[in-house]
């Protein structure tokens, strides 16, 4: 079989180690070493890198990729400065797309901080903007938002004094829903979508993969298969088969027992392309700081001016739930932001396994003190840090325990990196820039540390560290070429504008700067 040699490069391996050249055979790296060592293998083809930097392809360890692809075609209201602006944007969008009464108009980017009214609209405000079609506007944290009355009625949630387990539905003085909702009920918005709308969305994913490749991404641990729509979303992805040039590992969002059981009953009949894997079930230990639903201890709860909430996973049977999922060959990835939620979760994971062979993990893990870091290290529990959240309003009130990257590495905690996209931009270099410029200087890391976390660290997080995340023999040939030496920049601000020269997936070029520039 033909082989291809890449010579005269600055090839980053990991842990600040470099090579000069490497050899590919089909999908994999066959050998890594010096020019002489690689050329002695008598390769079929030779590519002269001319000094370019090569690093492993980036892997985002927690992202909502398919949802992000779809949402690029939904209504972005982040530019709105008033309710009137929102109304105009909705009118323009509806005029262009003509959303039918059997579907739903979804908007995103809602923030009361941007509006002159300094508050969120109610369902009645939204009814004035769009009455006969279901409407939902996501707040920036994607854990809360506002429905109009039509949407609430279709969800069977327009009831006096309604209680919906797992959801927080704000009620007015008479006990009727105001439209503002948090947590589980927000995620049911997709059930309002028409079948014709669903079919259109499969093609959105193909274009978004190319965008991801242009940023150097070759792997994602994505959370898109949700509750009532898990199967239809999977079918949309399966339609594209080999057209998705990413390693796609799935975290299934099955927070409603009915749909978890539905998936378990059908799991053995599911067939996936070679680059897809069902990796984990995602659960929630708490909400967000932004929506005041993160589970902090008393000290941090007081700092963030919220109640000290009990973690959702505090339920005495949660460890049994984890054990059951692990026996199915799946991990548990848990959303946990507050320190109380993380502490509770570690105890539950430890009860199931001291060594964590199933690779149960924690998404976000935003507030970690020294004791929690020690427990994570000793229990072999990986975390996915969103360093890019430092640059946004969600972290206005920083605390010394916020995303302690350097301390985590010193404690030998396994750290992957993620964006939670669409919450934060998908570009990995934004995340790396934030890691190098942590506002707490003691928690800043080197560019080597950040790239290791974004490659082999993320691969470890998704239990794939033996096949991807590094440039070494037998690993999947997923890598990026840069014209700039990203390891020797005059100023880290340059990271904001640098783009890959090429991105390779399984031994093939899937994005090229030259091609795009033509």
UniProtKB/TrEMBL annotation:
GO terms for molecular function: hydrolase activity, acting on carbon-nitrogen (but not peptide) bonds. SUPFAM superfamilies: Composite domain of metallo-dependent hydrolases, Metallo-dependent hydrolases. Pfam families: Amidohydro_3 (PF07969). InterPro entries: Amidohydro_3, Metal-dep_hydrolase_composite, Metal_Hydrolase. It is an enzyme of class 3 (hydrolase). Keywords: Hydrolase. Residues 46-510 form the Amidohydrolase domain. Its EC number is 3.5.1.91. The keyword Membrane does not apply. It comes from the Bacteria. PANTHER family: IMIDAZOLONEPROPIONASE, PROTEIN LONG AFTER FAR-RED 3. This is N-substituted formamide deformylase. It comes from Mycoplasmopsis citelli.
């Amino acid at each position: 079989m033909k082989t291809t040699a890449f010579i005269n490069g600055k090839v980053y391996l990991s842990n600040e180690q470099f090579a000069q050249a490497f050899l590919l055979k089909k999908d994999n790296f066959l050998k890594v070493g010096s020019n002489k060592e690689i050329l002695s293998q008598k390769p079929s083809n030779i590519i002269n890198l001319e000094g370019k930097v090569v690093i492993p392809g980036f892997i985002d360890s927690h992202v909502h990729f398919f949802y992000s692809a779809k949402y690029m075609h939904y209504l972005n209201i982040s530019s709105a400065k008033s309710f009137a602006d929102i109304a105009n944007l909705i009118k323009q969008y509806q005029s262009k797309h003509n959303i039918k009464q059997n579907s739903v108009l979804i908007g995103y980017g809602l923030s009361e901080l941007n509006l002159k009214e300094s508050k969120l609209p109610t369902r009645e405000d939204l009814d004035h903007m769009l009455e006969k079609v279901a409407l939902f506007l996501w707040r920036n944290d994607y854990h809360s938002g506002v429905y109009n009355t039509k949407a609430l009625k279709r969800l069977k949630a327009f009831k006096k004094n309604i209680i919906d387990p797992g959801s927080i539905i704000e009620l007015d003085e008479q006990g009727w829903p105001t439209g503002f909702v948090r947590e589980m009920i927000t995620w049911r918005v997709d059930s309002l979508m028409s079948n014709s709308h669903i079919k259109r969305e499969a093609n959105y994913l193909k274009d978004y993969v190319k965008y991801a490749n242009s940023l150097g991404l070759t792997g994602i641990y994505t959370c898109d298969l949700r509750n009532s729509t898990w199967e239809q979303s999977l079918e949309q992805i399966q339609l594209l088969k080999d057209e998705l040039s990413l390693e796609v590992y799935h975290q299934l969002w099955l927070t409603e027992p009915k749909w978890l059981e539905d998936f378990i009953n059908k799991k053995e009949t599911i067939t996936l392309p070679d680059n897809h894997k069902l990796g984990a079930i995602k659960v929630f230990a708490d909400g967000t700081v932004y929506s005041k639903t993160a589970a902090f201890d008393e000290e941090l709860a007081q700092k963030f001016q919220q109640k000290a909430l009990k973690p959702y996973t505090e339920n005495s049977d949660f460890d049994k739930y984890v054990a059951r999922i692990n026996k199915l060959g799946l991990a548990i990835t848990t959303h946990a932001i507050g320190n109380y939620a993380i502490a509770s979760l570690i105890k539950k994971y430890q009860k199931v396994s001291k060594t964590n062979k199933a690779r149960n993990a924690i998404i976000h893990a935003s507030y970690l003190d020294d004791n929690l870091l020690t427990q994570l290290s000793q229990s072999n529990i990986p975390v996915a840090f969103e360093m890019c959240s430092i640059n946004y309003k969600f972290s206005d009130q920083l605390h010394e325990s916020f995303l302690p990257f350097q301390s985590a590495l010193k404690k030998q905690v396994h750290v992957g990196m993620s964006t939670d996209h669409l919450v934060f931009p998908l570009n990995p270099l934004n995340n790396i820039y934030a890691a190098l410029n942590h506002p707490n200087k003691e928690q800043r890391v080197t560019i080597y540390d950040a790239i290791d976390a974004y490659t082999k660290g993320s691969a470890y997080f998704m239990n794939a560290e033996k096949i991807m995340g590094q440039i070494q023999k037998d690993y999947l040939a997923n890598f990026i070429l840069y014209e700039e030496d990203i390891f020797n920049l005059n100023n880290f601000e340059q990271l904001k504008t640098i783009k890959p020269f090429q991105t390779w997936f399984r031994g093939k070029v899937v994005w090229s700067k030259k091609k795009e520039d033509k």
